[in-house]
Each structure stands twice: as structure tokens, then as C-alpha cells.
Amino acid sequence: MDAVVKSLSTRETSVDADKREMQRPSREEAEAAVRTLIRWAGDDPEREGLLETPKRVAKAYRELFAGYEEDAGDVLAKVFEDVEGYGDMVLVRDIPFHSHCEHHMVPFHGKAHIAYFPSQGVVGLSKLARLVDVYARRLQTQETMTAQITDAIEDSLKPRGIAVMIEAEHMCMSMRGVMKAGSSTVTTSFTGIFKDEPAEQVRFFTQLRAGKEYR
Ligand SMILES: Nc1nc2c(ncn2[C@@H]2O[C@H](COP(=O)(O)OP(=O)(O)OP(=O)(O)O)[C@@H](O)[C@H]2O)c(=O)[nH]1
Ligand SMILES: [Zn+2]
């Protein structure tokens, strides 16, 4: 049988976003779906302890998947151009995140590391951490998320190079299926200087570890 190749597309148009918004069910429909899943799990949604659960789950979903309401371009819109001639690598490492895999809708969690070489300016450091959440708080694959973060920085900052690395544990591999708790998946994306100059890629990995023995 031919292998099934599913696309890991990174780009979403505003038309896609509008269509998704139109298809969003009502809160009542979402709560009814949770009651169905409770029965599918084998429990009784009418028992005392579960009566408010559909409402809580529907509310929690709006938080866990808040990334659909956010736009990466807005997060990175404010650029500081006056950085006193700084042009070297900016690295924000160990950004923790929680996401949900699009295959099983169970969590994967880990750390993202983002570096870039500024060209026309820099963004506030917190914005890189916010950018991670814009994409983490959606149904995801780790590869797509890595590429989306890279593309968003490219679009907004046009830097001389971008390096994104994500390390994560997928609960769909830990608590079900293959049951390999503790394995981690590493994905990377390099553009510009990081792609063309191996020494800069090495420096990225060195900086990721630098100073950790003192913490
Ligand atoms: N490439 C990639 N795969 C992922 C990610 N998250 C989960 N997966 C994998 O998605 C795959 C889905 O495989 P399927 O065979 O369609 O589903 P399944 O029968 O539930 O697979 P098992 O997890 O092996 O039991 C599994 O191999 C998961 O490990 C991700 O971020 N990237
Ligand atoms: Zn999964």
C-alpha cells in the first residue's frame, strides 16, 4: 500500500481563519460533545462529580487553544530599531511551552530556543516567548510549530538568520501507544547565516549550553 503523506503546512490565510471562526460550534454544542466523550470513556456525565465538567472543559479549551485567536504578526509588530549598533546573535532559550498533538489531541510539552541575527531592529524578548504560545496553543505537530515560528520571525523582522530548536516529550508516546516515557523529540530550523555558516550553527548550540553549569 502506498504511504499516506499528510501535509505539514505552515501557512494560514485570513480566509482559513474566517472559515474556522464560522465553523466554531456554540458553547452548548461543545459541552454536549464533552458529555459524549465522557460516555465514550465509560463514565456517566450525570453523576455528581462530572456535572460541571463539560462546562469546565469547554472553558479550558478556550485557554489551551487560545492561539487560534492570536496573530503572530501582531505579536511581533513592535520593532526597536535603536539598539546601539548591536548586530550579534540574540538568543532566548528554555522557553517552556505546552501544546497538543494534532493526531491524538493529548499534550506534548517542552522547551523552545529561538535565536536570530538582527538586521533592521529587534523585538522585545517577551514577544519571542509569546510567539511560541501563539503556535503552541493550537493543535500541532512539532515540525509545523518549528517552521511556523521561523516563518513568523522571517516575515516580521527579516533578520540575517534565524535558528529555532524545540525539544519536547509527546504524551501520546509516553502514556499510550508505544509507551516510551522519557523520550524526547528535537526539531530545528535554520535560515540565513545559521544555514549558510556551520560555525554559527555550532555557536548557537554552544550558547544553548553556555553558563548552565552555574545555574
Ligand atoms: N511527525 C510527528 N509525529 C507526531 C507528532 N506528534 C505525534 N506524532 C505521531 O503521530 C503518529 C500517528 O500515527 P498513526 O499510526 O496515524 O496513529 P496511531 O495508531 O495512534 O499511532 P501510535 O502512536 O503508534 O499508536 C504517531 O507515530 C505519533 O507518534 C509530531 O509532532 N510530529
Ligand atoms: Zn499524538
Automatic annotation (TrEMBL):
Which pathway? Cofactor biosynthesis; 7,8-dihydroneopterin triphosphate biosynthesis; 7,8-dihydroneopterin triphosphate from GTP: step 1/1
Q: Which GO terms describe its cellular component?
A: cytoplasm
Q: Kindly state which keywords UniProt assigns to this record, in alphabetical order.
A: GTP-binding, Hydrolase, Metal-binding, Nucleotide-binding, One-carbon metabolism, Zinc
Do you know which Pfam families this protein is assigned to? Answer: GTP_cyclohydroI
Q: What is its EC number?
A: 3.5.4.16
Signal sequence region: none
A GO molecular function assigned to this protein is:
GTP cyclohydrolase I activity
Keyword GTP-binding assigned: yes
Domain of life assignment: Bacteria
As its record notes, the protein acts as a catalyst of: GTP + H2O = 7,8-dihydroneopterin 3'-triphosphate + formate + H(+)
- For region Disordered, the annotated ranges are 1-29
Residue ranges of every copy of the GTP cyclohydrolase I domain listed in the record: 31-208
Regions of biased composition (Basic and acidic residues) lie at: 13-29
In the UniProt record, does the keyword Metal-binding occur? Answer: yes
Q: Which InterPro entries would you find in this protein's record?
A: GTP-CH-I_C/QueF (IPR043133), GTP-CH-I_N (IPR043134), GTP_CycHdrlase_I (IPR001474), GTP_CycHdrlase_I_CS (IPR018234), GTP_CycHdrlase_I_dom (IPR020602)
Task: Provide the residue positions that the database annotates as binding Zn(2+).
Answer: 101, 104, 172
Which biological process terms from the Gene Ontology are attached to this UniProt entry?
A: one-carbon metabolic process; tetrahydrobiopterin biosynthetic process; tetrahydrofolate biosynthetic process
HAMAP family, alphabetized: FolE
The record's similarity note reads: Belongs to the GTP cyclohydrolase I family.
According to the record's subunit comment, the protein's assembly and interactions are: Toroid-shaped homodecamer, composed of two pentamers of five dimers. Homopolymer.
State the protein's name: GTP cyclohydrolase 1
Species name: Saliniramus fredricksonii
